[in-house]
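Quick board copy: two proteins, each given as sequence then tokens.
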Amino acid sequence: MASSLASLKHLPCPAGNNCTAFQCLFKHERDDAKQGSTDTAQRPQPVKQGATSEDSEGPRKRPKLSQSASPVSLHNTALSGLGGRGRSAHGDILSKTDPVDASTSKITPVKRPISPPPLKKDVQSSSKQAERSDTSLTRTKTQTSTTQATSSASVSTTKSPVPARSPAKTALKKPETLNPRLLKRSPAQHEMRLKLLKALHGEYTRLNNELKKDPNSKGSNLVLSDQELIVRALDEEEETATKKPTVYPNSMKNRIFTYKRMSTAQWKEERTKALQEASAQAGKEEPDVSKPIVTGLTAPQEVEFVKRLVWHLDGLEGFGYVTSMPSEEDIRSARQAVEASGNTETCDRCTRRFQVFPGRRQEDGALATNGSCTYHPGKLYYGDRPPGDRSQGQRKYRCCHQNVEDRESAGCTTSNTHVFKTTDPKRLASILNFAETPPNPDVPADRAIAFDCEMGYTVYGLELIRLTAVCWPSGEELLDVLVQPVGETLDLNTRYSGVRPEDMVNAERWKPGDDPKPAFIPSSDPSQPPKRKLKLVPSPKAARDLLFSLMNPETPLIGHGTENDLNAVRIIHPTVVDTVLLYPHKRGLPVRNGLKYLTEVHLGRKIQLDLADEDGVPEGHDSAEDARAAGELVRLKVRDEWRKMQLKGWRLSDKGEFLAPGEDGWTYVGAGKKTGS
């Protein structure tokens, strides 16, 4: 009950400054003033990067609890003593300090009372915070230099130029202190571990200081910083404690004596060897993006073969796939339901209720109510566990690495308005009805298309704002346009769509007869690739008509999670190849493997790197890159399936036809038998 009442502190008191209640449950201006005066006194000082071993040591034991001690200050002291265990792997603060009245030593809560979390869970992220080798920082530099080559590599043998992306910056980590890391089963008492750790760190420091005096070592990576020395000593001590717990004291003493007898030349040789191993390991971990996928088939044969991978969508309506057009009665009922609710929606980000106004509200021109939206844009993941801990890790957000159970942060990102989306086919059809792919005799029989869509939030939900289609398997661009949505824009979702407001404003308006392919503008910097300039089509229907001009019902349409893209364009297509279905998750639908994960695992390269521009704004995804990645995954599946069929006796005739085992004619792959002439 106390926790739920304390959560009212974010709401202003109805009585305002005239409130006379004792310890009022609501927020007052005097609380904010009191918080500002006490935060400085209660906030622990962070450990500096260049701190020595004596300066960076935290408290060895928990402070004795007395009547005059503040629970909050004790909590912060414990956090600093654990070497930043209150921070995430990227240095984000997981818990904040509540103000304390210095005169009475009583807590004046602003949001809710805070109690120290269990040490076991508090230390989970810290044990994996440092890299497992003393050359981790060098490995980071090598990995950063190779990211740009990886992200700009070609997807297939033939494709249009794609702008290269700059490598992402490495996130800084919370400095650690010279304090043994907490283990589930400690091989010795804390005093013994601390004494051995200090001795080992002292030898590292001595050798490193002697190496600094070597003129040939200046400016190289051989000399370690103070923080790198601490991390190396912690890694060495932790590895010995976990792998050799029975002989831990003797093993640590042997390591100390080894470095005590080591000369500067031997230390330099060891550091050089470690750097070489780290560089080789970093190069080994980088994917080989130059290795092409060889199917053994020509492009027309691949298109003919991919029809075997077509997945009939009947029966998958429960997972978002639309196989039939909603009726006029269904559309009418959907519109009536929206009108009856007064356009009240649930935010897709923070789950708060709000109201939208298509065409803007007459009084003030607003598009939505309930103010700004604070949310977590990242997906959930399970954090790392300390060595020997087999319990399930805590769920965290990828955006800020905060625990899901932490109520202190309702979100790490704020947007101007709330947004919503709907997946109901009837309501989608009320904005723009679905259409089946019409016949088109002008489409080549050996054409397959890989496509991808980007969506943004409007007053009608999630609408199409970019459509890209490339020829499969070559990867040549057929269509890449921006799309003007039907409703007024709430948020272009740039973090994922990659579409910015200036792109929509400055785009050239497409007219019938114009080439739907993007134009390339040479960059002023010769080292940079040319910039893409997309045209803007007037509506989603116009974009759909452009796509219809490139395909017919028999054209294989390739994509990842095609139910989202098909619903955005409002297309019902009978020949769909979906990588979500070709590479299913081990738990089955509705759980799916992401395109980023599949590309890295099966193709050995990275996409959707979540890079940011000079202003810190995320660049977002590139629909052309995603479409080609899905196409390459399908080519990989074609190669594997054709190899399996060859083992069963299938072969190619002199004319390039597929011949079944023991047959002179060829059997249509995935269909009935066709006899030879």
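And the next:
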Amino acid sequence: MTPQHATQKERERADIARQVEEFLRQGGEIRVVQAPAGRHQPRHPVTWLGRDDFDLLAERGI
């Protein structure tokens, strides 16, 4: 991983952390569930920042 790539990942992680903090401040709730290893489709759609996007975090390498 190049230093530039690492810096971009750090910015993305910080951005996601800010979004999660805002979500929690607005009364949002995060629940931890156990899922089998590997890719799977959730039974119910998941909305992340107004988008239905199951691969958003995977695309960002998080």
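Board note added afterward: The chain has one domain: 3-59.
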